[in-house]
Specification:
It is a single chain. This protein has helices at about 5-25, 55, 85-100, 150-180, 180-190, 195-215, 225-230, 230-245, 250-275, 280-285, 290-305, 310-325, 330-340, 345-350, and strands at about 60, 65, 70-75, 80, 105-110, 115-125, 125-135. A five-stranded mixed sheet has the order 2-1-5-7-6. The chain has a two-stranded antiparallel ribbon with strand order 3-4. It has two domains: about 30-180, no CATH class; about 195-350, no CATH class. It contains 14 helices and seven strands. It is of the alpha/beta class.
Length: about 350
């Protein structure tokens, strides 16, 4: 039956939302149409796939179960076949360029995920990385099963997304190779920390910038202008926290959610502006009262980008500097107090999500 969430349930929902922001989740919608699925078992694949280590890592997950890709769509316009081999052949070229294949355990094609995700798993003093890509990136509409015909442009969207996630993966590999698993876990394990905030935002800037530089890819729905239009209300919330002190975990979660989303958009568009040279196109700073804040944030990204791979201390610095830049209307001592309150690792440590 419906009803109001309890306080514990609200905390659970908020933390799930925050983790989803770290993973960049979005969904694709479409009209319902007919779907013809391949009835082959996953193990009943062409023999040549088993001789290709890259293809062996690719699985399609539906409802958390490995199954066969939807290979055929039959509709009023005729029959369309999914040319997955052409997508995967192009992706393998990108994959081999990075030279980190030994760390990639699985490449999952999955429903419901955003364009892509990159997740590392640490176990027994070792680590592996899983990359997830949306089924829609292969031209398959999740709800209807409609298959868009293969085109070079659609294939480029797929490989650009894959490359973006590989840049995220390389950040993890480079960090662990230089600083070790123990230091990586100090960033990755806490549900919330100022270092993790710094990692997430800086890593997005880096991945967006490198993908734009190498593959001329600027595809994103993120909008700095949209977040600046509502920044005043976020600022008032934070000022209220600074003045009134203790607030609930639910309120903290909501504020962190907005802080992460705002800086995530800034990271994406600052990266595109730095590569393209078109600051106004991506940052909309002309006539913006937030121009100093936006440009100062971009200077943080530019400064640390050339210092990679960064350490735990440097990610902590980035997180704090991003908060200083955002809270330009506060004194340094007030910013410090806000950071300690909002990014309190212990506060969230006992909440399972």
């Amino acid at each position: 039956m419906g009803g109001a969430l309890t306080g514990a349930e609200e905390v659970f929902v908020l933390l799930k939302l925050l983790i989803n922001i770290f993973s960049k989740k979005h969904e694709h919608n479409s009209d319902q149409t007919e779907l013809a699925l391949s009835i082959k078992e996953v193990t009943d694949t062409p023999a040549e796939i088993h001789t290709n280590p890259f293809l062996d890592k690719i699985v399609y997950l539906k409802n958390n179960k490995v199954t066969a890709l939807p290979l055929v769509y039959s509709g009023k316009d005729g029959v369309v076949h999914l040319e997955e081999n052409r997508y995967f052949e192009a992706a393998q070229t990108i994959y081999e360029e990075f030279g980190i294949g030994q760390y990639i355990s699985q490449i999952e094609i999955i429903n419901g995920v955003n364009k892509g995700e990159c997740q590392a798993k640490v176990e027994n003093e070792d680590f592996s990385i899983t990359i997830r890509l949306s089924l829609f990136q292969l031209g398959v509409v999740e709800h209807s099963g409609y298959i868009y015909p293969f085109t070079k442009d659609r294939c480029k969207q797929f490989t650009d997304t894959f490359a973006h996630e590989l840049f995220h993966a390389k950040t993890i590999v480079d960090f662990i190779e230089k600083y070790g698993l123990k230091e990586y876990r100090l960033i990755a394990d806490p549900k919330i920390s100022i270092a993790k905030f710094g990692w997430v935002i800086m890593d997005e800037y880096s991945a967006c910038r490198l993908t734009a530089e190498k593959y001329n890819s600027y595809d994103s729905h993120e909008s700095v202008e949209r977040y600046m239009n509502v920044f005043g209300s976020l600022a008032r919330e934070i000022i209220s926290v600074q003045q009134n002190g203790v607030i609930s975990i639910q309120q903290i979660g909501k504020i962190i959610n907005r802080i992460v989303a705002t800086n995530y958009a800034l990271a994406t568009r600052c990266a595109f502006a730095d590569v393209s040279g078109d600051t106004e196109e991506h940052l909309k700073v002309i006539n913006s009262i937030y121009e100093p804040f936006i440009l100062r944030t971009n200077m943080i990204f530019q400064d640390y980008f050339v210092k990679q791979p960064l350490s735990l201390d440097q990610y902590t610095e980035i997180g704090f500097k991003l908060m200083e830049s955002m809270l330009f209307f506060m004194k340094p001592s007030e910013v410090k107090n806000i950071v300690e309150l909002l990014f309190d690792e212990q506060l969230f440590s006992d909440i399972s999500v």
